Amino acid sequence: MTTILTILIAILGLLIGSFLNVVIYRLPKHESLSTPPSHCTSCRRQLAWYENIPLLSWLVLRGRCRTCGSRISPRYPVIELLTGLLFLATALRFAPDLVGAPTPADAVARGSILIAALWFVAASIALAMIDLDTQTLPNRIIYPSATVIAALYLIAMASGMIGVTSAGAGSAWNGALTALLGALILGVLYLIIAFVSPRGMGMGDVKYAVLIGLTLGWHGWSYIILGVLLPFLIGGIVAAILLVTGRVRRKTGIPFGPSMALGGVAALEWGGTLMSAYLSLWGLA
């Protein structure tokens, strides 16, 4: 059952990745996400359903529009594949808990946590790519995502209070409390940085930090710590590489959203392993 659920979630990820391509392209332009339907951006021809199959259509068409021959960016299949792989990783992380739930209440709690993780992954991919393109982190993604994830955690908390095992009352309350504290800690930290260095950190980063803290906080303090450390570690490495290779100069603005997304998703998916490895490095585990 776990294997079937994992495969289905991975396939869902490919489909969501196709939709994220629409979000990434249209949302910064304030265009509708539903109309007009998917079309070639060069000749404007509406795409047939078989031209919208994730990964496969791009490969069959060899990255070209069937009508005008215009090049289709390889970024589209890359995002589809990335989303599918991250959904697969999320399923491997959370699906066994859902399948092994001993009571219906536990199943609801664990299912809500799984959906919250998938939502966060999808939102993070969209935010990272939009920040790369426009150096903005749209409220139209952050606010709904925070609302949905908070609602899912409330459902998990209520269900956990009914459940009798690992999703029981104590765990549910602890998850809710650390989720709130995670949102507060990361939000205040990034707000202070934005206040001290407004050219280096924007309010979009602050709002996204709240979303990251909220999402990771449910899973415990170690995840919050990683949510603080990993984005700055990744951002520092990326900045150093770009400076050494001459791709940017010292005063060049580098979008921080992708580093936040990578750090937040890595903490969510592999937080326990990463924290154990870090503690072992210092002989603390």
Describe this structure in words.
With 285 residues, the chain is an all-alpha fold. The chain has 2 domains: 1-100, no CATH class; 104-285, no CATH class. The chain has helices at 2-26, 56-60, 75-99, 104-134, 139-162, 169-196, 203-217, 221-244, 257-281. The protein is globular, with a radius of gyration of 20 Å. It starts with a helix and ends with a helix.
Please give a quick description of this structure.
With 285 residues, this protein is mainly alpha-helical.
Key words describing this protein structure:
single chain, mainly alpha, 2 domains, globular
List strands and helices in order, with pairings.
Elements: H1 2-26, H2 56-60, H3 75-99, H4 104-134, H5 139-162, H6 169-196, H7 203-217, H8 221-244, H9 257-281
Helix pairs in contact: 1-3, 1-4, 3-4, 4-5, 4-9, 5-6, 5-7, 6-7, 7-8, 7-9, 8-9
Q: How can the largest sheet be summarized?
A: none
Overall structural domain count: 2
- Determine the N-to-C terminus distance: 34 Å
Number of alpha- plus pi-helical segments: 9
The average pLDDT is 88
Order of helices and strands: HHHHHHHHH
Would you tell me the structural class of the helices and strands?
Answer: mainly alpha
User: What is the global morphology?
Assistant: globular
Radius of gyration, in Å, reads: 20 Å
Low-confidence stretches: 164-169
Percent of residues in beta strands: under 5%
Oligomer: single chain
Q: State the helicity in percent bands.
A: over 70%
How many strands? 0
